[in-house]
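Ticket #4471: structure output looks truncated?

Reporter: J.K.
Steps to reproduce: submitted the chain below (399 residues) through the standard prediction queue, then opened the result file.
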Amino acid sequence: MLYRKIPKNGDDLSILGFGLMRLPVTQEGKIDEPRAIRQIRDAIDRGVTYLDTAWPYHAGESENVLGRAMADGYRDKVKIATKLPSWMIKSRQDMDAYLNAQLVKLQTDHIDYYLLHALAGDPWDHLESIGVADFLDKAKADGRIVNAGFSFHGMLADFKRIVDGYAWDFCQIQYNYLDEENQAGTEGLQYAAAKDLGVVIMEPLRGGNLGLPTPPAEVDAIWKRAAVKRTPVEWALRWVWNHPEVTVVLSGMNDEAHIEENLAIASQALPNSLTEDELELVAAASRKYKTLMKVGCTGCGYCMPCPSEVHIPGCFEVYNKIHMFGNAPEGKFMYAIRMSGMLSGTPGYASQCVQCGECLEKCPQQIEIPDVLEKVAEELEDADLEKRVAMGKKMLNID
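Returned output as attached by the reporter:
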């Protein structure tokens, strides 16, 4: 296992972090706890030191399972990361209530790395207005949390102002070779690193899609040109780890074979270790995937804010994902969660578009945004949309 340092505290963290959002489950849909605990402990025994969970994962059970996995001396071997459920916070008092409950669930007296979950501009503004800085300061002072950070799903401009809005120790962003210009992107990665924040990466495989054993034929042909043969998973992970600004890459591991592969890659993936030819191959794969996109949206956010509150880049991101990777059920579920407003507090469905045309003047890609939003609504807002919203609220423990 290779390790990298958090700049502000000097912690040596394993470059591979164990994400506990997708633990193995039984046929009844419950966490297969004996198997999950074996997997977690085996990964720790082989060098993994960073474990990431959150309040809503597995309908609230992920933190409980991790707490039980930390018995028998395992707690002292690792750093635990969990998250304040930002969308559920109505008052300053709620912050302490959730943190204290998480300490009980995790069977510990401190959280090593504590994040504000799923921030974007509006959720950050809300938390800031009700005293989140005071909460973090006091929780650090009394020892309940050691390091403060946030995870992010929004626009680059909001990411930068959040980075500048508090004395963070670290942050967590979505990053992979398709998302260099999406959400925080490469510019955000470099901005955070320049401020001495540790950077934890989520979605290095874009929900597993970049690691499919049989990629689209056009992409597979690109990988076959490589002098050193690698699996799609290895290309994707090594590309992220090639960035020296990256501290930890999270993998939602739930299969023993996947854990073995990830551990093997994490023993070799040094920063700046890919050759120029290899980097060009990854760039070619990225370009090829993007030709499969339905919309040429880069996620720049110039079209925002929308007068009708449509989350235009988010709608296009999900729409593209479905057509690049062909997983319509997963894409429709993510659309329901993200666009219903259950996380942000403000719905942003494509169907909210009133064809005002304001976005057309702002889009540098000259996308016919209202026309495309009409197609997105037709495809993703079907008769089962409300069922998916209800399922998402149940999964995230939202009333």
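Triage note (M.O.): checked the attachment and the full token line is present. The longest strand covers residues 111-119.
Status: closed, working as intended.
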